[in-house]
Amino acid sequence: MSHYTPEEKVKIARDPGRPGTADFISALFTDFFEQRGDRQCREDGSILGGIARFHGRPVTVIGHRKGKNLEENLKCNFGMPGPEGYRKAQRLMRQAEKFGRPIITFVDTPGAYPGKEAEERGQGEAIAQCLALMSSLTVPVISIITGEGGSGGALALAVANRVLMLEHAVYSVLSPEGFASILWKDASRSGEACAVMKLTAQDLRRGGIVQGVLREPEGGAHTDWEATFRTMDAALRKELAALDKLKGPALARQRYEMFRAMGRGLPPAREEEV
């Protein structure tokens, strides 16, 4: 069991040195071919996606992208997608469905971009369409929350057959600062909110919200990228092998039933879990 407090975990999850989607793609996949644009409006740099091979197997990979420095942060809108990003994700998911490719998503966002222009271009509808589409897919879908999973902007890429979390990642309905502002009218109480919200990987595993917690090196994933990559590679291979036993509509049915059963009980922990 981790010795970090929920507040400390939030800080680790937000550490700019943690590996992001581009790093995971580079380390875990080969022959990555990025695909851009939503075919309606524009390219959204905060969603990275395309086709790749995982141990020789064609897959579709999609994830949030924050950037590693201020220039990249601005280009990626600090990992907060607009509707174009979610429509791009839908385009890639439909393509994966057409060609029978498993989908692997990496979730790391404070939330979808809440700006006026995003709402004018259909932000809510784009997220809702992502949720509906992922619910109906007949290919295996695995989502890994790698850092910060915030609100519907995170859930839009996390309606999966298996939802995994890195040990010090967090996943919640909104940020601790937002929670404290709404509940107590005081954003400075965000540390207290971290404990109340039950946003850690361990809390969510106990509640049946995620199906696996992947160990991180001491201090967090940013302290040893290679160890994190090895853990994630093993987990993806294991989960894909398990999902290969289900075919077509059975995958959509398993996904639906898993989300319907959330919070009702917890199956035994797996070996790689904390």
Automatic annotation (TrEMBL):
GO terms for biological process: fatty acid biosynthetic process; malonyl-CoA biosynthetic process. Pfam families: ACCA (PF03255). Its main location: cytoplasm. It catalyses: N(6)-carboxybiotinyl-L-lysyl-[protein] + acetyl-CoA = N(6)-biotinyl-L-lysyl-[protein] + malonyl-CoA. Component of the acetyl coenzyme A carboxylase (ACC) complex. First, biotin carboxylase catalyzes the carboxylation of biotin on its carrier protein (BCCP) and then the CO(2) group is transferred by the carboxyltransferase to acetyl-CoA to form malonyl-CoA. Belongs to the AccA family. Acetyl-CoA carboxylase is a heterohexamer composed of biotin carboxyl carrier protein (AccB), biotin carboxylase (AccC) and two subunits each of ACCase subunit alpha (AccA) and ACCase subunit beta (AccD). This is Acetyl-coenzyme A carboxylase carboxyl transferase subunit alpha. The gene is accA.
